[in-house]
Amino acid sequence: MMMAATATTSSSDTTANERSALVPVLSEAGDGNSTTSQSSLPRSTRTPSDGVLQRKSILAMQKVMHTQEDTAATIHEDTAATATANVAASSSVLLGSTAMLKQSLLADQQRRQQRRSTRLAEAASSIQHHGHGPRMTRTPSLFLSQRMSRILLVEPILHQLQKVPTNFLNDTKRLAEGSIPQSIVLATIIGTISGVACYGYYTVLFGALRVCWHTLPEHYLVVPNPSWPATYYWLWIPLVSGTMITGLGLTVLYVGDPGDLPYVISRIHTHAYIPMNHVTPTILASLFSIVAGGSLGPEAPLVAICGALGGYVSRNIFRQSSTNVVRKHTFMGMSGALAAFFGVPLGGSLFALEVCSRFGVEYFEHIIESIFCGEICLLVFRSLLGKDMAPMWNFTTPTILRIATCPPVYVLYGALIGLYGAFLAYLFAVFHGNTMELFGPRYLNLLENHRAVYRGWFAGIFIVALMVLVPHTAFWGEEEIQVVAMMGPASSLPNIFPTTGLIGFEMDSPFHVFIVGCAKLCAISFTVAGGFRGGYIFPLMCAGSAFGRLLYFIVPVNADDGTATVPFQLCVLCTAAAMNVAITRTALATTLILTFLSGEHMTGPAILMASICSLFATSYMPFIKSQITRSDIDHSLFHEEHHIADNDSVVSASDDENDVDDF
Length: 663
What we know:
single chain; mainly alpha; Clc chloride channel; 24 helices; globular
């Protein structure tokens, strides 16, 4: 404590140039913006790490030292001796302070804080009285005590980086940016708007499905028409699908590019919001795609629509400019859409956060607000729809009972089934890569938007052929999973007309189950390659349920009671989870969604194990290319903020750990 004061008073005066050079550097190290006041800093941010502060202080000292000229050769011998003594004294002070700091780290927190406060007060007092601090000379001993340099140069401005002292009432009055009251208000508003938007989209979509695939053919055009014999009912499938595919291509050509799930993810990473000019094309293109019978679902369009609404409310109504705050509000809309669609608020909200990264939830600070918004959106959507939250599938029969307990061995079964599903997903990824290459510039060159109509027609040939031959592959599979997993009759298929297709296909053998699984994966691939818009969560789960049912045929049977060693529910749900996770990278959300929708809560540990094993096995097989590592993970915990107009990182590339070694 006294040594720092002695060194301060014994050193010669710092020149005006040195102090002026020090000011902007210290300001940069403190808050990144000399005009930013403490009250403008977000309440939810944290202070930078010690390593960053140490590097900033060393850079400041080096800048000052470079401004000094070596005058040792021109000064008097006595003056040189005095300067040498000062250098030695400074080195001794620094080394002694290092020892003091090491000793203080072993003491309790209170004593360490008291000693540090005393040292800072005396150093500040010395600088104030004498107008200078210790002379900084180019000497290796200076860098032997990085912590001492932190105390002398950077600690006095730490008060600018502490959390803003406030309370809930003050934040509520001014809706402070990034504060809890602001998050509550915006989550309520965004959740309500998203719930209404989901209800409107849901009503139009299912109204169009009902009219095109049930009302018109069954009551007006096909069945009552004597000139349309039953043997030609299957022609209704290409008629409706071809019309809708044409509408899809014209939408892309004249209304605009609707984007897709990879585009939405890339916008989250790079801009933190989804532009509103993509909403109308997304609505029209997805409606045409889904009504056409393509193997993509409404979850991805809802994510894009509600995410865009969340970002619009944040930027245009509440005038938010912080990148991370706007991104949080965009996540609120996305989470609300999936929570409403799945009817699983926790699983749906986590899905929106997980799908943006390849390995876990990287935008972890937005989890609570996103889940809360998901609950609000679910409340509004289900209330308007008049539909309760309940399991969607029933995998029990008189011989297949509900799983009441989960023995530990089920977790091992889940791991093995997860690897099985990951292998199937790998085969699908390889097949889809070849499909996209066929549509690409090397062969057909159909991926440009000006060729959207031809792209859709070419893909439609394969999609319609699969629908006509295997009707189980039509649509996104949310309701078809019940029929596929239980090998139900084709007449139970909920959307397509006629349900028997051209050849009266039925899932009445293991081979036909295998055909359904392969045909569904082919349908997904051509639907994506054809420029259809939608999500492939339920389509992948539907294909996985078929292959899970196939696996159930070959599992060993217990000799005692004749039951299967691996329960039927585990085979179906774990395979469905593994295939979906391998493509979407959403291990946590997929487990919650499948556990709730199946009503088989005791399968949760096994499904989670299958999901994680599939995630590990396919870690180096990225299907969605825009799933990248979060770019602002380093400075997201600091007070220094990104803003929408400034996409540069606060911590520059030069602030690397290796920079300290270069000194």
